[in-house]
Write a structure and sequence with these properties.
4 helices, globular, Alpha-Beta Plaits
Amino acid sequence: MLLQIVYLSKSTSGMSPEQVTELARACAQTNKTQGITGVLYHHNGHFIQCIEGEDSKLITLYAQILNDPRHHDILTAVIKPIEERMFPEWHMGVVPEMQAEIDFDKILPLEAASKGHWNEATWARILDSFRLAAVLDPYPES
């Protein structure tokens, strides 16, 4: 079964756009061997990442992500079965910047208070905006 996991977190140290791209490139190389796809967004020390793949492989990857010392305050926003991937072409795409950056100070309290109801509509819009943004694939298919 295909799953999609979306989470938010805070970086433990400042990261430049180049460092974020390098992180995504390293993730993409690993993800390619596991059949995992997704996208990474970083702004002002916060991450949003969406990962998609076969449930057993994705759960193993997410367990590793939860223990990664490069970030903290991890908030799982979405875990759901999917019929098809939103980001099938990216083993780990990067959203370099958005016309309207995401305000994490507004998202985090809403997310903690609503646990699911807010996810369905708002996370779908956020992920669609990532898909429509100029997304850089640091590891393009040959």
